[in-house]
Amino acid sequence: MKADIVKPRILYAFNILGFQKRGGGETQLLETVKYIKNHGFEAHLFNPFLKLEKYNLLHIFGIAHHLLDIAWYWKRNIGRPLVITPLWWVFEEYYAKTGKIALALRDKTFRYLRKFPYLYKVQEYLDIRLDLRELLLDKGDVLIATSIMERELLSKHFNIPIERIRVVYNGVSTRFYEANPEIFVKKYGLKDFVLCVAGIYPKKNQLALLKALEKRREIPVVFIGPISDKVYYYKLLKIGQRRGNVFFLGQIPHDNPLLPSAYAAAKVFVLPSWFDAPGLVALEAALAGSRVVITNRGPMKEYFDDLVLYIDPRNVKDIEEKVVYAYYSNVDTSKLRKHILENFTWDKVLRPLIDLYGELL
Q1: What's the rounded Cα separation, in Å, for the pair 199 and 21?
Q2: Given its phi and psi angles, is residue 333 left (phi above 0), alpha (psi -120 to 50 degrees) or beta?
């Protein structure tokens, strides 16, 4: 270590296109960097002009192609600790249910090939990138999962020893606890609606939500999020125009007071995704006081216990019944808000990361 380094320097690498349409992964990254800076570390986001040898530890978020090159260079030329937060989940059901057959077959093939570890050593030696996820995750000294369920899935699917994987839960900013609904109501004239905050594309399953509420025209439905799939958006728009009382507001920046205000103005927040881990927007909505109806796929119970309603993303009738019940019943959200505030704010969930960095350094 160079003598001029006073504070440990942590470098964070991520999908370089991630902030073009910012989502939960980018929020998690920025909150981590902010927290680390407040606890005695220097922290910087990767850019190609930085001198990597000035950093004591590299922490990668995601498993994009170019991150494999960064990880390989780091381990071969710098040789210092590497932490990876994969932001990964099992895609096979989603691919199968949304007609992405080629991708489903690809993942099944990779799962079969993982039974023969020597094939991946040949991949690396010859630089043949059949499954970059396996190659990248193999480089991490420690992997970070955002739930116990994800930890077990990573270990099983990628043949990773469970002791190499730590759990650091996702979190939420306390500013959502102080959300004021009137900011949103004043701007849009909407209150007591069903809200879905997510990028508009098949993984988030907004189409199932609209089909579930197609005949419940008295219930306003609000979508907030960027259009990530135009074909999918036009399908939603067609149903929305036929139904009426559906509003597409586009993306609201995460630091804009309108976003927490939207959660507080909503009566029910719905996340019907094919998978989420668990979806930072659901934590934000819960802390802001909204009633939460969420997919039963993923580690949701590790975060929300029995304080929310769980839906099957395949079952439109189930979605309708749970959302309508949450909308019209007298649901007390105080226990849910208290649970999130006491267990899942960023200052609480990121403490184990400080301990991990200390061990590695």
Answers
A1: 8
A2: alpha
| Distant-in-sequence, close-in-space partners of 183: CB < 8 Å, separation ≥ 6 | 257, 258, 261
Which residues make Cβ contacts (< 8 Å) with residue 359, sequence separation at least 6? none
Quickly name the fold that domain 174-343 has: Rossmann fold (3.40.50)
C-alpha distances (whole Å) from 274 to each of 91, 310, 311 are 9, 12, 10
Q: Note the pLDDT tens digit of each residue in 253-289.
A: 999 999 999 999 999 999 999 988 888 999 999 999 9
**pTM score of the predicted model:** 0.86
Burial class (CB in 10 A: 0-12, 13-18, 19+), 259: buried
Q: Which CATH architecture has domain 9-171+345-360?
A: 3-Layer(aba) Sandwich (3.40)
Q: Where are the CATH 3.40.50.2000 domain residues in the chain?
A: 9-171+345-360, 174-343
For residues 170 and 349, is the Cβ–Cβ distance under 8 A? yes
